[in-house]
Amino acid sequence: MENNGCLPCTTLREGFPAGLRVLVVDDDPTWLKILEKMLKKCSYQVTTCCLATEALKKLRERKDAFDIVISDVNMPDMNGFKLLEHVGLEMDLPVIMMSVDGETSRVMKGVQHGACDYLLKPVRMKELRNIWQHVLRKRIHEGREFESLEGFDFEGIHHFMRNGQDQCCDDVSLFSLEDCISSTRKRKDADNKHGEREFGDSSSTKKARVVWSVDLHQKFVQAVNQIGLDKVGPKKILDLMNVPWLSRENVASHLQKYRLYLSRLQRQRDQKCSSSGTKHSDSNPKDPGSSTLKNSMNKQQNVFSTDNLRCPNNGLLQLHEADFRGTVSELNNIVPGPNMTNVSHIGLDQTFSSLNSEGNSEVFDCTLPTQYTWNQVPQRKLQDDPKSQSIASMDSSPSAASSIASSAVENIIPAQSKSLMGNDLGLKTQEFDASLSLIPDLEFYQQNLLWGGEGGFSPLDEDLHFFLLQSECYDDMNFGMHNIEMPEYYYDPGLIADVPNHLFYDSADYSLVDQSLFIA
Amino acid sequence: MDVLQLQRKLREHQAAMIREGFLDDQFSQLQKLQDESSPDFVIEVVKMFFDDSENLLNNMTRALGQVPVDFKQVDAHVHQYKGSSASVGAARVKNVCATFRNFCEAQNLEGCVRCLQQLQHEYSLLKNNLQYLFRLQEEIQAAGGSIPTIE
Fold first, then answer.
1. Hey, is the C-beta of B98 within 8 angstroms of any chain A C-beta?
2. What residues in B contact A77, CB-CB < 8 Å?
3. What is the pLDDT of residues A68-118, one digit of tens each?
4. Where is there biased composition of kind Low complexity (chain A) (predicted)?
5. Cβ contact B52–A30 (<8 Å)
6. pTM for the predicted model, two decimal places
7. Where are the alpha helices (DSSP H) in chain B?
8. What ipTM goes with this model?
């Protein structure tokens, strides 16, 4: 596929996002199978890989063979975060991380390493359907960066985004749409031709774009140096540069590229002269400036607050997903792999000691607008779900994205409030329907099936003998698991009625199976 | 037993499994994924899960039998199993894994051993129940009926 810096034909052809080329990496073959199926249902083009090294090989072979990578965090041959870094640096593709573990520190790590999203397993169809937005967002970003290359039709993009949304998105990320529209308006020289969509077509529609000439860039650098790289922000730079036709966004994207460039320089310098690195070079890339990040993220925040008014229903949760994605992509573009300290207000103090010990990471003060975004997520969950009561107070740990928000409940709860879960999920280990005290034999067998797979109890009837053949153990393993042959006849599933306790605790060693262990 | 009765049993059994926490919504998701192009999708996935389970439980047993116990290794297996159980919606198994991981982190051998036993138990129950479910499905299909979907 040709990619001259514009949105490639494959990405934005008719029917986008169908045909999106996804590479899935997961060492668990079960998940690989499921994800493949799910992605195919989204009409995406799927390639699966069970090894990270394999995935990298595929990616390196043809750099433009894929639009997006989805990878599990835990893999035997290579840490998912490492893969993420590689992909980000070498191929600059959007990468989505996945894990059954939704612990905030892990998520943060994903963010730091440049993930554009972090999905919690089990992954929902809805989440997968929306991944095309990451691709589009990244392309748009890139489009802004490579100013010298052909412009692209915002009108057209707008149109495609609408199409894409109609096609496959229940929950539209209005962020991306608004972002597109607002930047369209801001482009003073934008020449919006209605109905024309040219992508990757260099000959015709040439939009006037911000060309970062040497002079302009010099002004930029001067402004940056004047403010100080650690305190710099697009607004400040813009003000100093005093170029009327330049927008904040132009500056912001240019700043990101600049930082990336600086960090790359820094890495090279570090490699070359380990002992005698200049102090100056040390400080620069390491402090891209908290205020900048904050600024840009706050700016996005402001954008969202208006959006919020427009879409109250999809409102909070969707906004946060978008907000997070927006911030993540910002972070992603700035410096891959920075450590974020000072996020204590989201209560991650202890987790960050582990993060800080990461080698090769750059530290800058960053206060994510978590108070705004993340706090609202649990509230929303409160409305939806009584279970979330237990996490309502946990402002610190909830998800950074809606994808996590919804599943975090399941993940956090077992660890923290098992009793709650026990009650809510109706684990009827001890509550039984009193009404079914007299159980016909058939129903009894059914209950056995659900609860008492193990041997040890005396059959009430000969039928039980057929039904539950207790003797088989797994040959290989020897830990007393029984294969139960299925009966030839079927029972009325009266189900868990009065299951005598001894059934549940039937195995000799099961004095250990007590409620506290089970629920706590 | 006619098809209708079988279908009712199937529905009820699956509903019971969900109610009792053996299966969660993920299982329904898997069923939704099943279509003409992959008519045995759910069974295939569950079979993979069974294989995985036996493998991982085996690994855990071995790891806990070592002297000294490498808790990180045990934890790695449990984590993997947690992911695996999440794939089919094996909620109870998954929950035990979560507790198990806590014990691993605390390096509490006794707690780990108990969890392993519990895992084996839960897995055993789940396997039996699922096999019953699939058997019902088979019977229904053999009798010419269709598999009722659970909402």
1. yes
2. none
3. 999 999 888 888 898 998 888 888 889 999 999 888 888 998 888 889 999
4. 388-399
5. yes
6. 0.51
7. 3-19, 25-33, 41-65, 71-88, 91-105, 109-142
8. 0.94
